[in-house]
Fold:
Amino acid sequence: MRARLGDRLVIESPATGAPVRDGEIVGLHHADGTPPYDVRWSDTDDVTLVHPGPEARIQHAAGPDGESGRAGSDEAPAPSAGGPPGGVNPGDIGRRVALERRRQGLTREETARRARMSPEYLAYLEQQPADPSPATLVSLADALHTTVSALRGAGLGLPPGQGRALLHPRLDDLGPEECRALLSTHGVGRVAVSASDGRPVIVPVNYDVVDDAIVFRTRPDALPAAAVGAEVAFEVDHVDEALSQGWSVLAVGPASAVTDPEAVQRLTRKAHSTPWAGGEREMWVSIRPTSLTGRRITSTDQ
Structure:
């Protein structure tokens, strides 16, 4: 008997051959996949060391092209193309787990320990188009202080913050240094500009932070380009749906177009990602904040 991480161990009745219990293999003790295994049972959520007997069989977890997945690098898998309409793309759960883990500054080892699974199995989930059991999702959500729905991508078509407010919320002002730390290196923020007809417009953009300047790419004829030559407001935030907490940072300052060829090349080299909207967006806009303010909502019980 040989198994891989993510396979299911099925225990059958000796009399009828019908399945009587099953669990997900979340830990291997031998590199060749031979027993024993750490199994998270679907009926109890307990993880136990199992030496399978003759009544046990392995149900392999299918990976790409029907092959079982293998753990590898520390990177999350690339976005999967297509997928079942209205369903969850295989691999999307792992990408969300990896993103949330990194956002919280957790290693795989620490996350795996919290979720009571092996680091190798967590690597498998993050890198392969796996479909973990409900019990495993519950353990991961608990380890990351989030929800199973969030890991499965529920509510992607809804605005954030629809959960209940905290019973005893606490609102704190953030200092400039903490605001800079929360802006981090890159992400998605919103820039407020005045359109050509004078109307106020707020537009989401993919941004980077380079030399304390907020920079983003756009087209000369696109709405974000209206920021050039004006003092603008730029906002970025994060909402923790599971804990009804969050923060926001507001930067205000003059915006200008980056025209120096060497500066443009430098920004292009340092860019973490291309604009999600796609298309030709070769105009760089730089915002030099003269004011940084922020707020954080937490619970007074913390």
Q: What stands out?
A: The first helix runs from residue 92 to 103. The first strand starts at residue 8 and ends at 12. The chain is about 20% helix and 30% strand. The CA atoms of residues 76 and 99 lie 8 Å apart.
